[in-house]
Structure formats: structure tokens, C-alpha cells
Amino acid sequence: MKDDTRPAPDPLITGAEIARLAGVTRAAVSNWRRRYDDFPAPAGGGPTSPLFKLTDVNAWLAKQRKGHDVSDEVRLWQSLRGEFGDDVVQGLVAVARLLTDGTQAPRLRPEVSRQALDIAQSTSGAELIDALTERFLDLTRRAGSDQMSSPRIVRAVRHFADPVSGTATILDPACGIGTLLLSAGPAVGPARYGQEIDVSTAEFARLRAGLSGRTHTEIRAGDSLRNDKWPGLKADLVVCDPPVASPDWGREDLLLDARWELGTPSRAESELAWLQHAYAHTAPGGRTVMVMPASVAYRKAGRRIRAELVRRGILTQVVALPAGSATAHTLPVHLWVLVRPDGHAARTVRMVDLTANAPDGPLSPEPGQVVDVPLIDLLDDTVDLTPATHIGSVNRDYLVEYTALRDQLQEQLHALDALLPRLAPGGGPGTLDTASVSVADLARAGLVEYAAGEPVSVSEHLDTDYLHGFLVSPANKRRSTSGSGTFRTDTRGSRIPQMGIEAQRQYGAAFRALEDVEACTRRLAQLSQQATDLAREGLTNGALNPSAEDD
Q1: Contacts from 83-87 at CB under 8 Å and sequence distance 24+?
Q2: Residue 262 in contact with residue 315, Cβ under 8 Å?
Q3: What is the pLDDT of residue 311?
Q4: What distances in angstroms separate CA 263 from CA 65, 105, 256, 259, 361, one per listed residue?
Q5: What is the pTM of this model?
Q6: 217: part of which helix (H) or strand (E)?
Q7: Could you read off the pLDDT of 62-97 as tens digits, one per residue?
Q8: What percent of the chain has pLDDT over 70?
Q9: Neighbours of 119 (CB within 10 A)
Q10: How many helices (H) and strands (E) does the chain have?
Q11: Residues 176-182: what's their mean pLDDT?
């Protein structure tokens, strides 16, 4: 068989991968795209998730001398983590105060302050705080926290809250670090009000608002349900991503509270307490956009409150977002859109089911993903507000969808055969257990640096794909597992075989191919599940019949 001499296609990478490659945040990459006219143009993807040619990116980074040294933003973040540890929000507050009015926090060492001021001079205080905030959000996501709204949730709330007037009043009663509050509506114009239970987090949100130019913003600290800091405030738009599954939300102290006009929530329905709190602050004709766990749409305990929302024409839309939209889990969540009637109440509830979409996919529903349900059809014994329950077979062509999924499965199967690398016999197990070097030694020698927690080659004598391939070898996985069976992500003790760069590149190409195979099999599994779910639903509801060809 003749060797294939065609050049390998140039890999395409995302903005997040560029950030890891250069050792910076995604915000820094976004800033480069805006600031530098010669930054590589997208070679694929879409407007919200562009893809770039790896060779173009490497050439640009080399030209700009980026990616070879740890960025100033990363050094500052590392300094803050070392200085403040798990209380890094205090460090963010200290930097934000310094950039806002020059206040020097006692815990912020002078050399760290100089780091921050030097970076802010070359960019801006707002861009620096955005970059540090992104680092903080990455940290909370890795820790599995659900206390910070994910970028996907923020994007979805902004999409379904629009349009927002430049003279609107906006409230977020559980604003956290302010991301949802500051993202809703136009940047300039609206009056923004927020409340956050943690004092340091509330202070950081306030400082972020000032640095970003959202000057008409007031944020107060306190428990919104037990100690509302905005009594009497009526907002044109209320946005809220509340704490979930919180049994200690204060029910016993608030049984006679006037906010429960739709019914007193049970201990297990803290989300419906937050929803009624938000609705109590909604002006006539104003809207509320709530992030809700999917289970709130059908749980028995909340049926009476759901019925009142529907009966009074308050609930206008329920949107089921794709799995992966939330921060700490892959379970789907809903957006509930409420309107305080101002003379006319809604007669239908719009149900939108985006669960089949990719997490970063389009938010505008296709015709088969949306239906307007008359109120009377929702007021049954369960008052189930799950969109998929109400988007029936009349809105979809099961046979067309099933045929398309079969075709995609066939394409993926052919692709899988082409992707599997052709491998030759080796010297036998154990023949590579010879001269090797630890990742820690490679780092000390300046051959690798850590970007987003992963070692990346910064030397022409070490192939990154070769490095990553051997990091996940069984031997190195055993080295990364403690005696109790806990897997650690610290790769410094991993050992890499020593061989020439050309041999490394051959291994690296094989490892890349295996990663492509894994991605292909994941897609196959996803398509197979979609096809079987669709076929089972179509066969059981009468939309599909068994084919005689399969007898």
C-alpha cells in the first residue's frame, strides 16, 4: 500500500483552547481579537463559537511573543490565590477597590498592588477585573459550586429578557458577584439594584458595576427572603438565579408574609419562595425571568402555586434549556417568564423545549420546539409545566427526524473507521519502560508550563500531544491515584519516555487520532440515544409503524 503523502488538515481550535495554549483567560483572548487587527480570522464554527487554524494561532502568538511566558494576569491571579487562599473573593475586592479609588487593602502586599496597577495601565481596570472574574468562575465550576450563574445561563436569561429599555429598573435579589444583574439590558441607562447575602461578594459586585461603567447600580448585603433591603421597590425587570434545594429558607419565620399571594411555599419549595419574592418586586406590566430546576415544573408540593400562576395569567413562558447550561451539573434547567398583569392577563403559556440543542447552540426555537398552550389545558390534577409534555407529535415529523438520525449515525460509523489509527507491532509490553523523565523535571527545565492546570510544551524539543498521551497511560494514572483510591489531577509525578522529537510527533499524531475517535464515539452514543428515544416515542404514540423490511 502506498503511503498517503497528502498534508494533514490544519486542526481548528476554539477560543478556550487558545487561552490554554497561551496561558491566559478566555477574556484575554476576546480582548486580543478586538484589539489586534492581525489576529487570525475564524476559519470555521459560528458567530458564538468561532474556530481558528492552529498554525495561524501559533504564528500569531510567536509574533506577539505570547504563550511563551506566563501572562501578567495569570501571575496576578496566582499571587491572589497564594495571598487569600479559599477566601479569594476578598482578594478580588481588594484589587477592585485599588483600581476604583486607590485604596490599599491591608492584606494586599505592595508588590501585588503594583502588579495590578501595571496591568490596568496597559489594558483597563474593567478588563482586568473581567479576566480575574473569569478565573474565579472557572475555579468555582471546577469545585462543583452552583452558587454562580454560568455564562450559558447568563446568555439565556439575557436572550429571553430582551428587549429591555434604557430607562428600565432592573433587580436581582440573589445577585452573587453581579454577573446576571450587570448583563441584563443595555450597558448604559438602566437603574440596577441587587442584594446578596455574603458581604464580600456583594461588595465585589458593587465594585464590578462601577468599573464596568454601570454607575447607576446599588447592591446591598443581606438575606433577601428574611431581610429584604429593597422594600417597596417595583422593577420593570427582575432576574434571578436563586439558591436551589435550600430547606432553611425561613419558612417558619415567614408564614404570614404578604409576598405569598400565590400560596405559602413548603419547606421543599424554596425556589417558589424566591419566585414569589421576585414577583412581589415586579411593577405592573413588568417581567420576571427566573432560573428554575426542571423538577419545580412538576413536583406535587408546588402544584397549587403553579395553578395560581397559570390561572391568573401571570406565567407567560417556560423554556427548557439544554443539558449543560448550569454550572455544576448536566441536568437541564428551566427559565420561567412571569408578567404582572396590567389590565390584560395572558391566555396561553408558551412552552419552549431546547433540551435537544447543544449547550452553546441557538436559543431561538425551531417550529417543532415551541407551542402555545391554552391555560385551561394546563389546569389539570398535576399542573405539569414541563415543555416536553406539551409539545406534541403535531409539531414534529417523526419519520423525517428518525431518517435524518439514521443517516447521521451511518456517517459517524464511516468516520469512525477512517479515524482509527493504523498501528504497527511494537517491541512488546514493557519495552518503553526505560529512560524516562518526570513532568516536574520538565517544568524545572523550562520545557513545560501549566495552562489551566495542564502541562503544555513550550519547547520545540517536546511535542504537547506526545506529552498528554503519556500522561493518561495506565502507569501514570496509577501514580495519580492515592492509596484510598482518590484520583488526583496533579501530574507532576507522571513520567514521560525519552525519545527524539520526530518519534514524539508520530506518537502525538496517534494520540490525537485516538482523541478524535473518542469524540466520534461520544457523538455516536448521543445520536444512538436520540434515535432510540425518538423511535420508542413514535412507536408508542402511533406516529411510526414497524417496517415490513425489518421482518
Answers
A1: 83/107, 83/108, 83/109, 83/112, 87/200
A2: no
A3: 95
A4: 62, 47, 10, 9, 37
A5: 0.64
A6: strand 217-221
A7: 887 655 555 677 778 878 887 888 788 999 999 999
A8: 89
A9: 22
A10: 19, 16
A11: 94
